[in-house]
Amino acid sequence: MTVIDLRSDTVTQPSAGMRDAMASAPLGDDVYGEDPTVNRLEAELASRLGFASALFVPTGTMSNLLALMAHCGRGDEYIVGQLAHTYKYEGGGAAVLGSIQPQPLENQADGSLDLNQVAAVIKPDDFHFARTRLLALENTMQGKVLPIEYLAAASRVTREHGLALHLDGARLYNAAIKLGVNAADITRHFDSVSVCLSKGLGAPVGTVLCGTEELIGKARRLRKMVGGGWRQAGQLAAAGLYALDNQVEGLAHDHENAQLLAEGLLAAGYEVEPVQTNMVYVQMGDRSQALKAVASEHSIKLTAAPRLRMVTHRDVSRGQIERVIDVFTEFNRQ
Ligand SMILES: *Cc1c(COP(=O)(O)O)cnc(C)c1O
């Protein structure tokens, strides 16, 4: 039985076309700025998203770290959601490596931050306080899409207060597909954007940070400092270019499959959160370990958690989703 891995959309295998593109990519040393495929990826995504410059890096964590450190110096502060990846899931890197103080705020139910609260925690220019420099948002946030009007309002608030605005757009294209807009309609509200190629887009590795020439220049220096200067990285960039040209539209299928899964589990009596993109959250309480074990017998990989997250991606078919629903339905009968 083929394995159905719902733990994350990072688990995808490169498609046949992607492997071909990788195998034939022209290469050079990217630390010298001489990898033509990396240069093409950076130029391509910067232009698509409306930025002057871009930097290809190994991971989203590194991309966010470089962005935060390029926007903020020692003793500066950034405002961020309690649930944000940069705050909660990146080892506190901005604080450890950048001496940047986070000012966390509760995320609202829709994944956004209350902009009145944001304005209220911006510190006055006074030597008692850290200097508030940046607001970081995430989109999608746990599968939820931030409305375009909200992004415009966040942009206004940050501009009024002289803050920069960063987007952790690990799943930017899921948001764009869901809203039926160009990704640039989302990113134009931001000063910098980090886009993962390794999530639903299906590349094996890689994230691109986009911003101004000046910001990306700083990020390039910092990338070398943290050991992210890589050499013939063009094969990975080729995977990213292939994903951007061929695997964006397919995200819509992932969203349909997530919807199908949610409806099936609701019908089977589970408590399921409304689905917007490719993530399904189910309240499992103390039954998550037992479910994980049963699922594993059916070659279904899950993360055990009271609030169970399942993520659809290009390597999960509609038929496989139906199999998952059957296993969950049977489990709930016991
Ligand atoms: C996956 C992810 C990242 C980056 O993760 P890496 O594993 O370091 O590539 C950043 N932000 C969000 C929201 C993510 O989901």
UniProtKB/TrEMBL annotation:
Signal peptide: none
Record has Lyase as a keyword: yes
Keyword Membrane (UniProt): no
Modified residues (N6-(pyridoxal phosphate)lysine): K199
Cofactor: pyridoxal 5'-phosphate
InterPro entries in UniProt: ArAA_b-elim_lyase/Thr_aldolase, Low_specificity_L-TA-like, PyrdxlP-dep_Trfase, PyrdxlP-dep_Trfase_major, PyrdxlP-dep_Trfase_small
Record keywords: Lyase, Pyridoxal phosphate
Subunit field text: Homotetramer.
Family: Belongs to the threonine aldolase family.
Protein name, as recorded: Low-specificity L-threonine aldolase
Source organism of the structure: Pseudomonas helleri
